[in-house]
Write the structure tokens for this entry.
Amino acid sequence: MTIIASWNINSIRIRINLIERFIKEVRPDVILFQEIKCTNEDFPDFYTALDYKAVINGQKGKFGVAVLLRKELDFNQVKVDRKILLKESRINFIYIKKLDLNILNVYTPNGNPIDNKEKFNFKMLWLSELKEISKNYVDNIKNLLIAGDFNVLENENDVKNFDNWEKDALGCYQARKKFREILSCGLTNIVRIFKKPGEIFSYWDYQRACWERNDGLLIDHFLISPKFLKFVKSINFESKYRGMQKPSDHIPIWISLNI
């Protein structure tokens, strides 16, 4: 059994206690973090004592992603030559030999406000590059998992009041269409196998008592290539972490694979 988790941690240095609790409870083999909000040098070394190693792509004060892997897992970093994806610290790309699986950890640009053409166009170009990678890997029969914070509402029911999001960069037609173009390359959104749209959320804003009213969004996903779909056993949403002290506005999500 292999467990792979994803968590937009929204500043890793102030969530260490929550991460340690999650690791002890779930014992994931791989954890993908987004929005670590620190440089590589400032990334806290809590993971060594827990028998993990790290791949970090940090940035001062904002963005930043990281992957923790069990020490016994051999991996290679996968080279990315697409300038848009490298403009900000938003991806890790690794290949795990034991699993024969390429894992792309993503923190998609938010794109708001939508009338800011520079920000919105950057998001669209970023997603287009993600589509090209997806197509290349699926067409060449390479195993691929893309996971993280996509900042896209794929389905209208992935938020309670979709009318409020149609002119937002997370819910607008263009962003949702681009996300589905990525799926059309041959990837499956794992949550759709186990949960109906509107049944579960992954993010609750800190404002307007969104957590208390369960006014959330589903914007964190696991997309998997055809050959690996048969190994998927479950997807799990650890909603309780949103109600803990000093939480991230996202919760940890994890999948279990029969491999």
Observations:
- The chain is about 20% helix and 25% strand.
- The mean pLDDT is 97.
- Residues 2-257 form a domain with the Deoxyribonuclease I; Chain A fold (CATH 3.60.10.10).
- The CA atoms of residues 84 and 126 lie 6 Å apart.
